[in-house]
Amino acid sequence: MTAQPVHHHEPDRVPRNAEGIAAALSGERRMEFYRELLAAAPEEAGAVLRRWWCEAMLDTDPAGDHLTAAALDGTLPTTTVEDLIARRRQAGSAVE
Q1: % the chain with pLDDT above 70
Q2: What is the value of pTM for the model shown?
Q3: What DSSP letter does each residue of 71-83 carry, written as one string?
Q4: In which element (H, E) is residue 49 found?
Q5: Is 57 inside a domain boundary?
Q6: Domain count within the chain
């Protein structure tokens, strides 16, 4: 299994809250986000916010078109999940 490497980003580009996420999404995707968030049980809301925050970050990424093209071409650099977990542990980040 592989995952995309972690790249540092501007943390303020999309705030990690419902309002910030919704503002970064376009019309139909924003409505899908709100539907999913409102339908989520309280214990599921955090996972919904995390997932949609990632979506919003991708949507607002200045290099988004390049990343999409590289993914479609099969040239997007990847890393193993094991390496990613090791890097997160070394950095003191949460590993779920």
Answers
A1: 89
A2: 0.62
A3: HHHT----EEHHH
A4: helix 42-59
A5: yes
A6: 1
